[in-house]
Amino acid sequence: MELSERKQKILAAVVEQYIKTGEPVGSKVLLDSLDMSVSSATIRNEMSDLVMLGYLDQPHTSAGRVPTHLGYRYYVDNLMKNGELNEETRRLIDAGVETSAGDPERLLEHAGEVLAYLTKCAAVMTTPAGESARIKRVELVPISSRTVMIVLLTSNGILRSKLCRMDMGITTSMCETFYNIADAALIGVPVRNITPAYLQSLAATLGMETLSMFPLLSTVADLSQSAIQSQVMLEGQSNLLHHREYEGRAYELLEFLSREDPLEQLIGQSRSDFEIRIGKENIFPQLENSSLILAKYSIGEDGGGSIGIIGPTRIDYPRLIPSLKYISGLISETMQKALED
Amino acid sequence: MELSERKQKILAAVVEQYIKTGEPVGSKVLLDSLDMSVSSATIRNEMSDLVMLGYLDQPHTSAGRVPTHLGYRYYVDNLMKNGELNEETRRLIDAGVETSAGDPERLLEHAGEVLAYLTKCAAVMTTPAGESARIKRVELVPISSRTVMIVLLTSNGILRSKLCRMDMGITTSMCETFYNIADAALIGVPVRNITPAYLQSLAATLGMETLSMFPLLSTVADLSQSAIQSQVMLEGQSNLLHHREYEGRAYELLEFLSREDPLEQLIGQSRSDFEIRIGKENIFPQLENSSLILAKYSIGEDGGGSIGIIGPTRIDYPRLIPSLKYISGLISETMQKALED
DNA sequence: TTTAGCACTCTTATCATTCGAGTGCTAACT
DNA sequence: AGTTAGCACTCGAATGATAAGAGTGCTAAA
Q1: Which positions of strand C lie within 7 Å of protein CB atoms?
Q2: Is domain A5-80 classified as CATH 3.30.930.10?
Q3: Alpha helices of chain B — where are they, by DSSP H?
Q4: How far is A316 from chain B (nearest CA, A)?
Q5: Which CATH architecture has domain A135-228?
Q6: Residues of chain A whose C-beta is under 8 A from some C-beta in B?
Q7: Residue A208 confidence class, pLDDT cut points 50, 70, 90
């Protein structure tokens, strides 16, 4: 849909004004902020058209105009000029991220905190996905006579552990057997291949002696399972309460955000490196008044995850997008540096 | 402060009625729920006394009465009869906790979820404190030519890991040296003893060869540090938004809860096994309209942590306390079972 | 000491009124 | 054909008056 230059100018002005004030914007206010040499009546006509086209909405007949999600979309795609990342912000981000290079999860957590602080929105992060990760190491740690802790480490640095309780006492020979099996049939195997079916076939090959191994092996499968699933983290939920648009309606959103499954789904849908989903563009009805901005960070060829912000549709896109892009880039860089060499 | 039996009866009735409805309770309503053979005027007189004594408050001259934090306190200490844990609730708790016996953190998380669901409040949990824990195992896992992951396991089952980046390449001899040091001077040492000072003295004893070990050792110190600190977890924050008393005021509380440090402090203060802090009894002003109910769970002699709920002062104490006690008992039991033998 | 009765207080809901921001339309103008 | 001034109109927000209702405190009698 092509818009005349003047309509574009007006639409941009409405969006920007509304982002700034949160009040429906009328033709008079626009006159000031636009320094065009036209009258308010002309602007009214143009705005009326924009309403027809679906880019603007008016809460009631005698109110100013408010952008629809289509309006925001047009603005974001065609009109918006991304702001510069100011020096102070950059420093803040650097400081937040650099402190915790050693631990991916902590790194993400800190990045989320900074992001939430900067944007006054909620930040979501996913831990690096282990899609193509392989098992790097499996350790057995005796805890008591009948309990061992199994520790699993994957090639992309994910560490998972779980207790496993055995029916009989744990012997060194059992451990040896287990390590043998592990060396032969677990180490180096892609995590996603470690399925119950795989274990079945393993048991068949190895015969009787694996019987006592079964609890251990199935624990390994559990761990593999949980290593694949990238966890979702959330920071700064309470920031959302500051925004007028959620007044009284905050519960639905916060409740939605507090459940991991839908959140995972939400973020998992994304395929591109950078994505903005505005209001009703989101599939989940709980987000129909919110915008999601997602950026991917990457580690090496295959690995990576996402970091993003969730806030009202009336969010300061031009200011926040550069921050998010910078932060995701920095995460990629930092994680890469830690892992590769 | 001794109260006449009738005053006690009235106080109890006011508290219970207010818990049920959230409306200031007047003398008439009390008449019904009290089936005493007195008139409303008598009750009014008594209530007037209770206001003088500080147990009740009235929002304005012609409103009913509302319990003060002293009123709740008197009720909780002297008047309340704990309810029975109903069968369905017990089953729900059992189901929530049993599913994840293998992993202490996950166990707590699930317990918190169930608790939040049952109480419609926020649930807080701390991971088992490692006060007297010892280092059980230290592992070096090469990640790349210059990066190793160090994994620390303590006697109470806490697992921590961190990447450590070295200036020079990692050799097998370095690893051997490290393991030797670890065996000699780390394994079995109480975690809280692993301080920078301890490492200094270690370096002095071992001489030059430890120089290259220093990054590794100080990472071990970091990990020990973080193993000591029991983490605080939070579930069901969004539940709080349901309560009228937080309407419009929710931000302060949620913001407070989202910060780990004060939360840790809050829970750390507790010394007894079971504790109730009502409204202004809390030190933090953000909690002056909230109640905290905390129960300790224990593992063995020394270890343990807390689980509790945070909600409005107008909380259904008699119903929720049994649930909390049951859940904390179950956590103790389950964790114990997993670790000991 | 208790109680009935009653005047009084304060909140809440409702409704009419007003005010003002902003619109849409029309007719005139360039 | 597009633009503009002018004006009637709409709708929400604010204001204020009024009424209803809940609950109290006090007084005088039982």
Answers
A1: 2-5, 8-11, 20-26
A2: no
A3: 5-21, 27-34, 40-53, 69-74, 87-98, 104-119, 172-185, 196-206, 214-228, 250-258, 260-268, 317-339
A4: 21
A5: 2-Layer Sandwich (3.30)
A6: 101-103, 136-137, 139, 141, 143-147, 149, 151, 153, 157, 159, 161-165, 219, 222, 235-238, 241-242, 247-248, 250-251, 254-255, 257-258, 338-341
A7: low
Q: What is the pLDDT of residues B155-178, one digit of tens each?
A: 877 778 888 888 888 889 888 989
Q: Which two tokens stand for residue B123?
A: 């649930």
The Cα B130–Cα B124 span in angstroms is 18
Residue ranges per structural domain of chain B: 5-80, 86-129+230-340, 135-228
Tens digit of pLDDT for each residue in B88-133? 999 999 998 887 766 788 899 999 999 999 999 999 999 987 677 8
Domain B86-129+230-340 falls in which CATH fold?
Beta-Lactamase (3.30.450)
What the block records as the tokens of B94 is 């059992």
Q: Which residue of A has its CA nearest to B259?
A: A236
| Nearby residues of A131 by Cβ (< 8 Å), 6 or more positions away | A192, A228, A302, A303
Nearest by CB: A153 against B144, B149, B258: B149
What does the pLDDT read at residue A101? 67
CB contact under 8 A, A341 and B146: yes
